[in-house]
Amino acid sequence: MSVRAHWGLLALSLTAMIAAGPAHVLADQPVLSKEEFAARAGAAAPALRQINCTVKPLRVVELAAPSQGTVAKVHVRPGDQVKVGDLLVELDTTILKAELNVAKARAADLTELNAAKVRRDGLAIKEARLAKASAQRAVSVSQHDAAVLDLALAEAEITQVEQALALAALEVERTKTILDSMQLRSPVAGVVGENLIDPGEAAGQEPVATLYVNQPLRVEAFVPSALISSFAAQDRFDAAIGTPVAQHSLSLDYISPVADLASNTISVFFLLSADSVLPGSKCQIDLAAARVQE
């Protein structure tokens, strides 16, 4: 047999195998109906029974200094429980106290005011005498007019000194307000975090303290988008939290209006009142009542 004839027979054999192969494979595998395929797919994917969640502080407050300065004292430590109004940090107030003393001295100094009043009173007497003399034609009218002008200038000087004293009094109050703001107090009831400034450090743009509001706590659950309707319709929400695991009742707060496309989940937020639970704890919420939407 020639080489050409050999290759021709081989090509015919391959063509026959290709034609018969798919028919043979399909003959061994039965075709499933839509209902059978859905049933087998449901059996292969077990129903989801629990939703993962995390426990977070209700609020995180980063306390900032009202102005730049050096920290003089820190009255708390990380982990301390604080109430509203508790003193946390004091900034150095040496320069401000000196400015306050200067402002008080200016506000209390009546020397210039008293001198202006004495000049005014003297010019008033002079103007009265010249007015009488002018009426008797003993002095010229221009002399009397000059006395009137001097008296008016003296009155204006008194007004100017009084305004300066009023501004000095306002400066005293302004400096007192700034001094009070150098004492940084807690705006919330919570726990002091680790991000706490130390004495001697400069207070500026960075927070001087971080406060965590843990009563109540916030629980975030990551619910698959397909389960959100049935999940939200549940009458009760219980979470398994901590080690050893303990059951805690949750109160529904709100549902995020935006889904996470990467995980195809929607965040659902709850409130949890439990002194024994710490932020950062992992938890799971029972999904027994939830079903995938048809």
From TrEMBL:
<dbReference type="InterPro" id="IPR058625">
    <property type="entry name" value="MdtA-like_BSH"/>
</dbReference>
<dbReference type="GO" id="GO:1990281">
    <property type="term" value="C:efflux pump complex"/>
</dbReference>
<dbReference type="Pfam" id="PF25917">
    <property type="entry name" value="BSH_RND"/>
</dbReference>
<feature type="signal peptide">
    <location>
        <begin position="1"/>
        <end position="27"/>
    </location>
</feature>
<keyword id="KW-0732">Signal</keyword>
<protein>
    <submittedName>
        <fullName>Efflux pump membrane fusion protein</fullName>
    </submittedName>
</protein>
<feature type="domain" description="Multidrug resistance protein MdtA-like barrel-sandwich hybrid">
    <location>
        <begin position="59"/>
        <end position="202"/>
    </location>
</feature>
<dbReference type="GO" id="GO:0015562">
    <property type="term" value="F:efflux transmembrane transporter activity"/>
</dbReference>
